[in-house]
Design a protein that fits this description.
mainly alpha; about 0% strand; transmembrane; transmembrane helix; Amino acid permease; membrane
């Protein structure tokens, strides 16, 4: 009897958690964290909010790509073949 754990080939197919939703939530949390840290350190929440938006936009754009590449076997498997 084999008790091997088979990894799920498509971890985002059947659940409510998608890479896009994860990226959005993490970027919103990042904006709040950057704003609060910058408010306590520099007394300027506007600079922190700008930095949070900058980092948050990168997270929204690239986190879904990285998560989908990891679940699909890497970037080579995602490349179009022509």
């Amino acid at each position: 009897m084999s008790d091997r754990h088979e990894p799920n080939a498509a971890p985002f197919e059947d659940g409510p958690v998608t890479p896009e939703r994860l990226g959005t939530v993490i970027s919103l949390v990042g904006i709040g964290v950057f704003t609060s840290v910058d408010h306590t350190s520099l007394n300027s929440p506007a600079i922190g909010a700008f930095g949070g938006c900058y980092v948050g936009s990168a997270i929204v754009l690239f986190l879904p790509l990285l998560l989908r590449a990891g679940s699909n076997g890497g970037f080579e498997a995602m490349a179009p073949t022509g």
